[in-house]
Amino acid sequence: MDYMLSEDLMAIRDICAEIAAKHIRPVRAQLDEENRFPREIMGVLAQSDLFTIYIPEAYGGTGMGSLALCVATEELSRACGGIAVSYAANALGAMPILLFGTEEQKLKFLPPLASGEKLCAFALTESEAGSDAAGIKTRAVRDGDHYVLNGTKQWITNGGEAQIYTVIAMTDPTRGARGATAFIVEEGTPGFSYGKKEDKMGIRASSTRELVFEDCRIPAENLISREGMGFMVAMKTLDNSRPGVAAQAIGIAQGALDEALVYASGRRQFGQRIDSFQGIQFMLADMATSIEAARALTYSVARMIDSGKGRFEKESAMAKVFASDVAMKVTTDAVQILGGYGYMKEYPVEKMMRDAKITQIYEGTNQIQRSVIASALIRETAAGAR
Amino acid sequence: MTSRLEILSDKCVGCGACLSSCPLGALSLDGGKAVASPACSLCGLCVNSCPFDAIVLHHVIGGASGLEGFTGIMVVVELRDGRPDRSTLELLGEARRLAGEDRRVTALLVCAEPSDIPGTLIQYGADRVLSASHPALAHYLTEPYAAVLLHAVRTDRPEIVLAAATTQGRDLMPRVAKLLDTGLTADCTELAIDPSTGLLMQTRPAFGGNIMATIVCDRTRPQMSTVRPGVMKKLEPDASRTGPVEHLEVCDSMTASRTVLEEFVPSGGTEVDLTEAGVIVSGGRGMKGPENYDMLHELAGLLGGSVGASRAAVDSGWIPYPRQVGQTGKTVQPKRYIAVGISGAVQHRVGMQSSDEIFAVNRDPDAPIFTFATHGFVGDLFEVIPALISEIKRRRS
Amino acid sequence: MKFVVAVKQVPDTAEVRIDHERGTLIRDGVPSILNPFDTYALEEALKWRDKLGGTVTVVTMGPPQAEAILTEAVSMGADEGILLTDRAFAGSDTWATSHTIAEAVRKMTGVDAVFCGKQAIDGDTAQTGPGIAASLDWPQVTFVGRVREMTDRSMVCERYVETGVQVLRVALPAVITVLKDANVPRIPSLRGKMRARTFKPVAWGAEDLGLTPYETGLEGSPTKVVTTATPEARTGGSIHTGTPEELASIMADLLLGREDAR
Questions:
Q1: Can you give the pLDDT at residue C47?
Q2: How far apart are CA C255 and CA C246, in angstroms?
Q3: What tens digit of pLDDT does each residue of B37-58 get?
Q4: CA-angle at A20, arms to A16 and A23, nearest 5°
């Protein structure tokens, strides 16, 4: 389907496709196998200016916006969901600064992110606080012109690889979610170290790691927005980043469909190509249709975000839920079409199926997303907006 | 060799600055303007000496005087570890064949110390050796070797100059051909002299080996070619052959170089030389991965051969480049060439089609390799090759 | 530093089909691409420009459509492009091509180094680089697998030869021809693509370069192609099918025939 993408967006897509062909496809299976972060590929993405697209021109970026980020993430995910999330997680990590940072913070932290000289990560989740952000245990206590952080963040994408972290910590535990505050923590700050590196089912080329804060003193000017705004910062950040997860899901699904189509045209059983069997044909048709529907929804939401008008947490959640469910279904069907070969590691679809699963889970499980959608519906109805 | 020196009369003020720049004293003043005598060798030194940009050296391709007085074939000798390289011996054989009764083959030997090399060159087909030796010529460097070859061609005036299309020949020859204002044909696989015109017909593959082009150099001399190693046949050495060895004066100025060899790192001694192998077992894209080459090594071991590869396999990083056979790799002519999982694209074919017998194993009955293989086997290489290995072992036990 | 990269637009030989009757190429529908070997030359020049500062100018000789490869080079990061285009250039062999490109380099003035690909995939001659060096009376290093270091006065190159690696220090200005071992060419960047959209190359013809008809194009080319033909096809022999064991048995007969007779 033609989404009337601008020349810039088509350029982004072409660049990502070329990077995928030359740098990602040849190594994705190995990175997955070895659980290894694609540092060289991050360098390639940087050289091609892909880290500039979500950062405004004033801070060294190209300011292309949400749809551009979706297009890039989708095209990279088509080759490898793990590498793509390592890329997209930078936008997530930078989002608190982009949305709520002071001019000084933006001038200091965004240019090295735009150039790709530094990577970024967002740290919200803890062992006892996933979707329930109010359960955060990490403490930040003011001490003169510093804050002292103590606690452990868990499952942080780009953990150990990024140099700049946006971290949500409690400044006033008595106030629950309203006692949370966002901070910028730089790698190398005394008291900040990395903990356990996770061994995951999918997206294994991405790094997922604990961040450990032990009397970690950070300058007060690294506070984002105001004390108590942390929950708000986190929610707005996730609202903005969810279309990125949707784009990742669409890319993974498209990659699986590509593989299924090629396989079905080459595989012969009972003397004919298996794509001549109606059973296979209907599966392929449903896979393609659902991907296109997910893409149409996601691009629409991204365009809505880029237009700068109105609230979009409901639409953003819808895109994430729908696209990630599509990805899980499509990748499972792709494995089915490839049959026994699909289950083997020689073919990439089993990895795609493993990679797809996380999109239903992270940045808010699909169950939480449905709650978000439902609350928005109820609120809008109450306000007479519908 | 048909350049022309022009003195622009509107710019020349007759200052005489150019007169002393000419090593041959070929410039003089006549009527307040500089003029060049026929002694001018078109070296161009005066061009830079003129403060008024009044002297221009025109390069002109063609012209009546360009073809006269050139005779014989000159072969540029390439040494490897102090001995004539195999490619040079092949060239001498080819030059001798081309020369027939009418022409003389001159081997140009550029080296530090000729020792007994001239004798070898004559045994392999040279009629005469022109030996240019100087301590500075101990190893190949572009500028000194180019200066020597230029000097040799200008004084000896060969009709044809041949060098091997090695990294040396392909560095040296285009530089010299440009300076001589004559044509050069690269990487020829076939040479012939047209009986009616006497022109050297130079045939070479182009467009990745898809096309064989025949090229002539009909308006300038000498006619220059680099020739692909491994294609021409060398002669059996004939110890009874004799011929003169002449020395070509090398003056120190010819050895000046703006390039300095700081270090030479020889490649590992274990390097295979596919061009010497009697049996080659080559794997292509169908091998699927580097680990599967083990069985090719085993098969090659059983047959006393070496392992080669197609470009697809080398580009995928499965096997190193020295083993690549084809247009951009090595040209081989073993007794038996066993192509495993190689489709037989033309770029591969040009590198191995001179093999005595070609065996091909491929799953795809429509693979182009079957159109030129001597023995084609349609089957899955992952089944056929292990079966072949055990069959050979069984028969030998 | 002022670097020049000489590039060529070539038909994608992987897509070329042959008219066997006429022994010629069927060029219709064959995409034209930037000579793959030239991308390594371009990357090497860009890499050293990024390190040492300066500019990279790409230059090509060809028909007006050859502008496309200059645009591609700009999207990869080249600063300027020069298109040498003139009917007078048509039919140039390597002598005339290197002569013409050398004149362009001379006209640019102040150039520190010219980078060329090892060879073009259509002609495979590898002669233009040395030809340019000869025309300019500059030193040359061909088959460069790695540029180790560079200053404004010299560079140190690894030249890959049959028996090993020559490490050569060459005084600048110089011409080098680059192998694919040297680097991994960068992917076009977003900013490069945005710039390429409005890029227009400088166009120079024979007159701009002060070239007479005797030193460029067909007239200025000492060599000419007299015939083309498709390579002699070796006719296929026998084709065997069967189980792996049957095939292995036939192959063993053929391969070991002489051993058995012993």
A1: 97
A2: 14
A3: 877 767 666 877 788 889 887 7
A4: 120
Residue A86 C-alpha, separation from nearest chain C C-alpha, in angstroms: 19
Put residue A144 in one of left, alpha, beta given phi > 0 → left and psi -120 to 50 → alpha.
Answer: left
**Which secondary structure element, helix H or strand E, spans residue A208, and what is its range?**
strand A208-219
Q: Give φ, ψ of C34 to 5 degrees.
A: -70, 125
Tokens of A214: 């032990």
High-pLDDT (> 70) share of chain A, %: 99
Strand partners, A102: none
Does the pTM of the predicted model rise above 0.90? no
Q: Distance from C118 to chain A by nearest Cα, in Å? A: 21
- Distance CA(A353)–CA(B41), nearest Å, equals 76
Q: How is A220-255 classified by DSSP, letter by letter?
A: GGGEES-TT-HHHHHHHHHHHHHHHHHHHHHHHHHH
Interface mutation target, options A7, A12, A49, A52, chain C, most CBs of C under 10 Å: A49
Residue C19 falls in which region: left (phi positive, over 0), alpha (psi -120 to 50) or beta:
beta
- Phi and psi of A186, rounded to 5°? -95, 145
pLDDT, residue B89, reads 96
Q: Which residue has the tokens 């916006």?
A: A65
Q: Do C123 and B395 touch (CB under 8 A)?
A: no
Q: What is the mean pLDDT of each run of 10 residues along chain B (397 residues)?
A: 74 88 81 83 74 80 66 96 93 96 95 95 97 95 95 92 96 96 94 94 84 92 92 91 94 91 78 77 92 92 90 87 85 90 88 88 91 91 94 87
Average of pLDDT values for C48-59? 98
Angle between helices A39-47 and A81-100 (to 10 degrees): 60
Helix segments in C171-243, DSSP class H: 190-196
> Do residues A200 and A354 touch, judged by C-beta distance below 8 A?
no
Q: What is the ipTM of this complex?
A: 0.89
Q: Assign residue C166 a region: left if phi > 0, alpha if psi is -120 to 50, beta otherwise?
A: beta
Q: Which helix (H) or strand (E) element contains residue A87?
A: helix A81-100
Catalytic annotation present for A34 = no
Q: Which has the minimum average pLDDT: A157-171, A283-297, C89-103, C247-261?
A: C247-261
Average pLDDT, chain A: 95
Whether B114 and B137 have beta carbons less than 8 Å apart is answered as no
The answer for residues whose C-beta is within 8 angstroms of residue C56's C-beta and 6 or more apart is: C3, C4, C5, C42, C45, C46, C49, C77, C78, C79, C80
The pairing of beta strand B4-7 with beta strand B55-58 = antiparallel
**Residue length of chain B:** 397
Q: Residue A278: is its pLDDT beyond 80?
A: yes
Q: Check pLDDT > 80 for residue C262.
A: no
Q: How far apart are CA B243 and CA B241, in angstroms?
A: 7
Higher-confidence residue of A131 and A112: namely A112
Contacts 24+ apart (CB under 8 A), B95-101: B95/B125, B95/B126, B95/B160, B95/B162, B96/B125, B96/B126, B96/B127, B96/B235, B98/B73, B98/B160, B98/B191, B98/B192, B98/B193, B98/B200, B99/B72, B99/B73, B99/B127
Query: Which residue, among C42, C187, C195, would best test binding to A if mutated, counting the most A CBs under 10 Å from its CB?
Result: C187
Query: For residues B274 and B308, is the Cβ–Cβ distance under 8 A?
Result: yes
Residue among B174, B258, B357 minimizing CB distance to C139? B258
Place of tokens 């090497």: C44
Interhelix angle A349-359/A313-343, nearest 10 degrees: 160
- Dihedral of CA atoms B166, B171, B174, B176 in degrees, nearest 10, equals -110
Query: What's the pLDDT score for residue B60?
Result: 63
Sorted by sequence, the CB contacts under 8 Å of residue A274 that are 6+ apart come out as A264, A267, A268, A280, A337
- What whole-number distance in Å separates Cα of residue B183 and Cα of residue C95? 7
- Compute the distance between CA of residue A363 and CA of residue A379 in angstroms, rounded to an integer: 22
Angstrom distance (rounded) from CA B294 to CA B302: 12
Residue B397's pLDDT is 80
